[in-house]
Design brief:
607 residues; alpha+beta; two-stranded antiparallel ribbon; 19 helices; 11% strand; globular; binds flavin-adenine dinucleotide
Amino acid sequence: MTLRPTVDFLLHDWLHAETLQQRERFADHSRETFDAVLDTCERIAREKYAPFNRLVDTQEPHFDGERVILPQATHDAQKAYAGSGMLSAAQDYEVGGMQLPYTVEAAANAFFAMASVSIGSGMLTTGNANLLMVHGTEAQKTVFALNEFSGRFSGTMCLSEPQAGSSLSDVSTRAVPDGADFADDPLGPRYRLKGNKMWISAGEHELTENIIHLVLAKIPDENGKLVPGTRGISLFVVPKKMVNAAGELTGERNDVALAGLNHKCGWRGTTNTLLNFGEGKYPVNGEPGAVGYLVGQAGKGLHCMFHMMNEARIGVGMAATMLGMAGYLASLDYAKNRPQGRPMGPAGKDPAQAPVRIIEHADVKRMLLAQKSYCEGALALELYCARLVDEQHTAEAAAADDARLLLEVLTPIAKSWPSEWCLEANSLAIQIHGGYGYTRDFPVEQYWRDNRLNMIHEGTHGIQAMDLLGRKVLMEGGKGLTLLAGRINDTIQRAIHVPEFAAHADALGRALAQVGAATKAAWATGEPTDALANAVPYLQAFGHTVLAWVWLDVALAAHAAPESNARTGRLAAMRFFFHYELPKIGAWLQVVSSRDQTCAALPEDAF
Ligand SMILES: Cc1cc2nc3c(=O)[nH]c(=O)nc-3n(C[C@H](O)[C@H](O)[C@H](O)COP(=O)(O)OP(=O)(O)OC[C@H]3O[C@@H](n4cnc5c(N)ncnc54)[C@H](O)[C@@H]3O)c2cc1C
């Protein structure tokens, strides 16, 4: 059992990815070119990533006082990834890209996430360079982005600070113009930055010739004060090593210093760093201050950063999904081979009988089917959202705008749902292994530790929930929610005529109505403190309803396919989701609708 048949089914039988070639941008593509990309990525993931997943966990990055040391396997894997051309896959032919649809890029990257999520497949580098291609100057594109696409440089995203995590408005890194000629630098208006950035992934290493940091910082006003809130935030490109306008290293180090490596619960193959900008350890031209070049307009830094958030969040959701999938496949294999216990017969158990394999026990099947329904459902959702990204960029205007709005509403789910439920899948994978699952002799505990990150970064679970209920379902007069309801109703209409699915279609219709009613009830007083007190249960109910929709739609595609074990499995996973999971939304929405204040109103001293 491998991932590929599931990916192929979802891409082609369900999402009809080959229809994308009707778009001018993708006209040179075909099922053959898509398959070739998937084949290459599957092979590199199998050869260069999977065998080293445990190694990068046990050989954490370490600092020898001068350099951060990573295992040779990480260097080899990243070289192979860059060599595949995947870093620039979505880019135009003129800059060496493949003009690959994001749907296929996301599917191809899934293989790396499953094989070894923390070795990394360049999500940060691609995101960084993609942002520069949209918001950077021609020189910034040529010097920074193109060298990132080739794998010569790598990229980071420096948003968080020790005191500013969820609340980016509290960013206190300062950027001041660097000299009288600051506006004339060929690489963009030149500033000097000072401040500390916490949690920066891939912030220091020797994997590439240079590291290109994209840094949020504030430019002080004429009184030297930082503008409060997010309005004052600007974006800067800050190379670790100085480069000239031809993209060559000048030999001078920029004033960006590693203050320390964070030692993480999981995801240990990627360095995580506290970086000091401008502390004077590496003065440039004899002066302290990290040299950074303004990207886009001053004060519009968050806007630029958010440009790439949908894809980054689909990337996080996909990573969570694939870690779940890795655990599912490992526990399926274990369950097929582990003998333990006897079946319950009419006369109880017969100790004289040989033990059965644990996959024969109903409860183990329950845990396997739960994982399958979480992870394959999440994979379908991520690919659906990736397809919306392509629609947004290449469909005609009205359809593109619908895709944009749908993505606004679905992105918090694409990021958060797999982070919670594919983590739960990892927990079930450990459970299936019994005591062995709790040891480092089996891979499943590492999957859980790696996956635990995903509810924290790229906007915590709580922040995503408030974004969904506080902003996304209300924006543009609730149009995004209405559009989503329309898509869900389309599926219901198709399913209601299939006798096997009629009850599920009905259940989905009721769930959708419950979500709609709870959204209204949450906002009935118009007070955000009432509405958002139970934002996470709302996120959970919303997410489960979306997943039930995705499963019913996938089941319609499966139903049309010839009989096979895969078809039987998909239909069972859909039924599992409707019978065991969807009913949970009643409890979640109850506290949302009644604006329950049990948690919010409890005085601190009562805890
Ligand atoms: C391994 C790892 C890699 C990371 N990589 C990067 C990176 O490359 N670049 C980068 O910039 N950052 C990165 N981050 C930072 C990450 O995005 C932050 O950790 C995250 O945004 C949360 O910030 P915080 O840790 O300060 O927690 P806090 O913001 O202090 O949150 C703590 C808890 O309080 C809750 N909370 C906070 N504010 C509210 C609120 N207003 N309402 C309700 N609940 C609230 C949160 O949901 C959370 O549960 C990384 C983090 C980790 C752990």
